[in-house]
Amino acid sequence: MDREGDGWAVRILTLKLKKNCFDHVCLWFLSILTDLDDGIDYRTVIKENIFTMWYKTSLHGEFATLNCVITPKDQNLLQHIFDEDIQTSEAPQTVVLQGAAGIGKTTLLKKAVLEWADGNLYQQFTHVFYLNGKEISQVKEKSFAQLISKHWPSSEGPIEQGQVEKGGRVEETCKTSTALFTYYICSLFPRIPVGCVTLPNETLLRSLCKAAVEGIWTMKHVLYQQNLRKHELTREDILLFLDAKVLQQDTEYENCYMFTHLHVQEFFAALFYLLRENLEEQDYPSEPFENLYLLLESNHIHDPHLEQMKCFLFGLLNKDRVRQLEETFNLTISMEVREELLACLEGLEKDDSSLSQLRFQDLLHCIYETQDQEFITQALMYFQKIIVRVDEEPQLRIYSFCLKHCHTLKTMRLTARADLKNMLDTAEMCLEGAAVQVIHYWQDLFSVLHTNESLIEMDLYESRLDESLMKILNEELSHPKCKLQKLIFRSVDFLNGCQDFTFLASNKKVTHLDLKETDLGVNGLKTLCEALKCKGCKLRVLRLASCDLNVARCQKLSNALQTNRSLVFLNLSLNNLSNDGVKSLCEVLENPNSSLERLALMSCVLTSKACGDLASVLVNNSNLWSLDLGHNILDDAGLNILCDALRNPNCHVQRLG
């Protein structure tokens, strides 16, 4: 919108939560070309308004001034939001900040106001107006001039900034977010003034929880009068929760309320499922938010507004959390929801579409909140295949804790992208003993290789493995109780040449090794060849497609196969072996004692010169029944040589591709 002809130059910065959702705020940046005032008084007033909002909405023990701190990341974002578009050379008239509720969009807009008022940003505008959705939704009709007029400088002096109540330092004693918020919520109610009703009864608490859960599902975080009436919450009821600092009243509109923090609302929303009335008489839940299966089907990408509530729900299954709430509110909490959740998890396992990496990782985050080994074992007993990805330390901590209790697991696909060095470089891990802790997490995670006798396949696709992880993995794969049969290292990045396959020499269970698109390196090829020479190696399938093998490496591999009597399938496709490399391989495979049954040499830069050696293998190796030579330039002469070999009565090849 550009109204410079009428004396206005306007830019709008707004945030968007969801269509038809009015719980949003908007900044209007105006350059008023008429000389109304010097703007200094207005800057003072708008700063005081922002500070007042923060002081009134700060959580108990929270320093409101912390909200004012602008990080370099925030500064960089705000500096460039009105930059000219490279293609159109025009500055945007409207900028929308879009994201999940509670991640800091509103706070960023308030910081933008303060930066303007302090003279740091947007000085091309003489005035900035902060408007919020609650204000607009409360009026039937009002002009823009009326909306902004209340912010205009008055003759009153600056408002004194209040003091923030200072609490003690929070100790890091809670392992989960549910534990932390349970302690916090329970600490609020003893602070209620003596003149008030001491505690909400179960009916009142259930009403608040229902209002909370409905708001989370619909992404509406403001309680208007109609919401209060719907959930039978009276003015006296609201006062109780206001005094407890569970709810807060809007600073300007007395009929608008909200929870003191989004996580507080999410906590009470989760508590709804433990306090809800018996649904046994209903054929199905009357409201979508009552359907636990729908909640478990959600994921943090498509339904980010449900994720923390779901974590709190699982966390509230912990017996210690239940005891805290029962003692605080003087009630008895039924744990029927525990069995309901387990039944839903069994249903998820039967629905193949629900076993995606996304949903399973969300599930592990949730069940970790319980800190209940018995429940975790029951919850994971329905899953025989999992797909997870480790990008940072919190994920590693969660997966290592949960997966060692998954005793029915048969197939595990783990993409480990966060090596030890990268984890320790993060700010959260720059602590004494962090390296030892991270290594312990990896040991716990890989311990499933010997503690879980059902696990027969592990896929480390696109993992990033360093020396520490490779050492742990080797130790677990060499463990006498390891029952793994199939190991996949496709597209794995081995750092600093840490490839090590010595476990193959002693592990008699691993029969399938897939290293496609992985650079073996010097040490990898050396340890692999040494293992192939050992009698203890029982490898039957070896996939080395696109492993950067050349003539020299192929010769080393061929030497290792001279005494090997277990390998039946070898895939060397997509390697630059050339005729000389295949010649050394054929010298080994034409031995009648060779056990190889299938050989794949697709796209190995072969010509007709290699066909004579290959024909010798076809005639002399009675075990070989499949040979794949696709995408090589063999021409007619080479094909004729192979056809002659196929006609030989000693040739047992059934498939030539």
From TrEMBL:
InterPro entries: Leu-rich_rpt, LRR_dom_sf, NACHT_NTPase, NLRP_HD2, NLRP_innate_immun_reg, NOD1/2_WH, P-loop_NTPase
Highest taxon of source: Eukaryota
Keyword Nucleotide-binding carried by entry: yes
Domain NACHT: 93-151
SUPFAM superfamilies named in the record: P-loop containing nucleoside triphosphate hydrolases, RNI-like
SMART domains per record: LRR_RI
GO MF assignments: ATP binding
Keywords: ATP-binding, Leucine-rich repeat, Nucleotide-binding, Repeat
PROSITE patterns documented for this protein: NACHT
Pfam families: LRR_6, NACHT, NLRC4_HD2, WHD_NOD2
Keyword Protein transport included in the entry's annotation: no
Gene3D superfamilies given in the database record: P-loop containing nucleotide triphosphate hydrolases (3.40.50.300), Ribonuclease Inhibitor (3.80.10.10)
Family, similarity comment: Belongs to the NLRP family.
PANTHER family: NACHT, LRR AND PYD DOMAINS-CONTAINING PROTEIN 12, NACHT, LRR AND PYD DOMAINS-CONTAINING PROTEIN 14
Descriptive protein name: RNI-like protein
Species this protein is from: Mus musculus (Mouse)
